[in-house]
Write a structure and sequence with these properties.
The chain is α/β, with parallel strands linked by helices. The model has no long low-confidence stretch (mean pLDDT about 95). It has 17 helices and 21 strands. The strands form six sheets. The protein has a six-stranded mixed sheet with strand order 3-2-1-7-21-20, covered by helices on one side.
């Protein structure tokens, strides 16, 4: 019986198992197959969504926007498998039409509705149920087993099959192996390594990029100043764990303001970042004009661009179209949802918008939307503090609190549904843009597509839930969080043995004995601490994607696992391994995220289907 080993049993791993089973009935209809899931963490939840973590750890997507089931909207060769979203599963579980969850999660289920940001541990229960359903519906003769252990090496067995070596000394032989490793820890490099060495020399505390929920936060003393670089999701996890997680609580005042009540065990977080503000709140407005299902300008221009064989220039050929389509999505919804803020008929605006060049859109918006606060302005989004003069730390906190209040008001205002339209348009770009990668120069792929555009995508689509922003506001008022603004820099001062932090918006520096880089590690093969991937890289059996341009001499390793278009591992000598595959966001396939929005043609599912079919068709013939 052919055996397929899937190394990594989190969302990506169980997703590829679903695609293997869905396609097995078509590609290997009369053949028994065994699939072995290998992971030291529970199969389904994996590391990130495992049970037992704090209920303070929440998802960053609405429950209605999370599914693992590839429905009819997915354009892939394999069959569809419709199924409930996280919200639908929670509702059916609460109603008793699906099996109950662990009693400890009863409140999590009951409190989760379509517009909820569910606990991560509840998402783990959904993942466990999903895997159970997939196994239950497996074709006859196909078997799925789970091996709880850590894979540390992959070699060739004497009979020519793949041999997976586990940390406990056992081994699994398989005819194909799929690496679904997900987010991996990495060794500190560059300024992170310098910060770690400085901490060691002076007896300080440094926490490098990683999963905050797994970090030992007991090293953060109560009342101590803690420098935090980064204001993304890892920061909000940290914020929750060292405030509510240490006994603090929030109370709602009579006037509606949220107030934080200290426990006395909190540190003080001095936080800054390049942008200086958190991403815009996760949009949740109801769209009056309806969901954004198509981009206005980009698809036609994309078809024309791809019709030829010339290379594309990102700034000339792509970026203007991105800005114009985002602008169109915003104003189409604004004219429908808040016509009181507009000064011309939509038909006139649409005609003028279509004829305008991207550098003429601001002038058009000034005529059509009298109030600047209701216009689409990409510079305000990317650099909201660019006009803020340097302040003292205390004075800047007042400015920061004002901007947070404005963001919360914007998030709560139904007339701001245009922000949700931009979010919808960005998701469509996320599906379109990867097709252009082969037509862009390597530098543009790295600096523009993976850099400038993806940064804009995160600003719009990856912000915190509004309740997190309100908590941050309360913590700023209570003095538990002290913002340091944009352009944050940290100086390692050997004379004082302290970290000193400053930035573009403050006219002083603040010292601390603790520094935290609150973000996930960048993908890296060369710097991974994962024993399996490290061993494959050291032996040359796996390589790191490197983008090169012989014409200019440009060369840039991306940190991603190099695979071909079928997901097969590319060795250091450029050869492709016919029985080893890798899948996920940290491979050169890119774009594959763990979950998808129901009813979309998500690249997550397309990549999973593509790799699963390659694995099945690549199995050795029946003896």
């Amino acid at each position: 019986m052919p055996r397929i080993a899937v190394l990594g049993a989190g969302p990506v791993g169980v997703g590829v198992v679903e695609r293997l089973l869905a396609n097995a009935g078509l590609l290997t209809p009369d053949r028994a197959i065994e699939i072995v899931l290998v992971d030291p963490h529970p199969a389904g939840p994996g590391r990130i969504w495992r049970d037992g973590q704090s209920p303070l750890m929440r998802m960053n997507s609405l429950a209605k926007d999370v599914t693992l089931f590839p429905g009819e909207s997915v354009r892939c060769a394999g069959p569809a498998r419709p199924g409930p979203s996280l919200a639908e599963w929670a509702a059916a579980t609460a109603a008793g039409t699906l099996p109950p969850v662990d009693p400890r999660l009863a409140d999590d289920v009951r409190e989760t509705g379509p517009a909820s940001f569910a606990t991560r541990r509840l998402q783990g229960a959904y993942l466990s149920w999903f895997l159970g359903e997939v196994i239950r519906q497996a074709p006859p003769g196909t078997r799925v087993t789970v091996h709880e252990g850590r894979a540390v090496a992959l070699t060739r067995a004497p009979d020519g099959t793949e041999r997976v070596h586990l940390a406990d000394g056992s081994r699994i032989d398989a005819h194909a192996v799929v690496l679904a490793l997900g987010h991996l820890d990495a060794r500190p490099q560059g300024e992170q390594a310098e910060a770690a060495g400085f901490a060691e020399r002076h007896g300080l505390v440094y926490l490098p990029p990683g999963f905050v929920a797994d970090a030992d936060l007991s090293v953060l003393p109560a009342g101590a100043d803690v420098l935090v670089r980064g204001m993304g999701l890892a920061f909000f996890d940290l914020m929750a764990l060292v405030t509510e997680g240490r006994g603090g609580r929030y109370v709602r005042e009579v006037g509606g303001e949220l107030r934080y009540v200290r426990s006395g065990r909190e540190p003080r977080l001095l936080v800054g970042s390049r942008r200086g503000m958190p991403y815009r709140c996760k949009p949740s407005h109801r769209l009056v004009h309806g969901p954004v299902r198509d981009l206005r300008y980009f698809p036609q221009a994309l078809g024309q661009s791809l019709a030829g064989d010339a290379m594309l220039d990102f700034h000339r050929d792509i970026w203007p179209l991105i800005l114009k389509d985002l602008s169109y999505a915003y104003y189409r919804e604004l004219f429908a949802a808040a016509p009181q803020h507009t000064a011309m008929p939509w038909q006139d605006f649409e005609r003028l918008h279509a004829a305008a060049a991207v550098d003429e859109l601001d002038a058009l918006a000034e005529k059509a939307v009298p109030q600047p606060a209701h216009r689409w302005n990409v510079d305000d989004l990317r650099a909201p503090l660019r006009h803020t003069e340097p302040h003292t730390v205390d004075d800047f906190r007042v400015r920061f609190v004002t901007l947070l209040q404005q963001e919360l008001q914007r998030s709560a205002d139904p007339a701001r549904s245009a922000d949700s339209a931009v979010y919808g348009a960005q998701l469509l770009f996320f599906e379109h843009l990867p097709r252009l990668r082969p037509r862009l120069a390597p530098r543009a792929q790295v600096e523009e597509l993976d850099g400038a555009w993806f940064a804009l995508f995160n600003l719009v689509a990856s912000g915190p839930p509004a309740f997190r922003m309100e908590e941050l506001l309360a913590l700023c008022r209570a003095g538990v969080v002290q913002p340091l603004g944009s352009g944050m820099r940290v100086r390692l001062d050997e004379s004082t043995g302290r970290y000193w932090a400053g930035g573009a918006n403050i006219c002083e520096e603040r010292p601390a004995a603790v520094l935290i880089d609150a973000r996930l590690p960048e993908p890296t093969v060369a710097g991974t601490v994962d024993e399996l991937l490290g061993a494959l890289h050291s032996s040359g059996a796996a390589s790191e994607e490197c983008l090169t341009d012989p014409a200019t001499g440009y060369r840039r390793p991306t940190g991603r696992i190099a695979v071909d278009e079928r997901g097969r591992l590319v060795a250091a000598d450029g050869t492709v391994h016919l029985a080893r595959y890798a899948l996920g966001w940290n491979t050169s396939l890119r774009g594959a995220r763990a979950f998808a929005i129901p009813g979309t043609d998500a690249v997550t599912f397309r990549h999973g289907d593509q790799v699963a079919r390659a694995v099945l068709t690549g199995l050795p013939p029946v003896a």
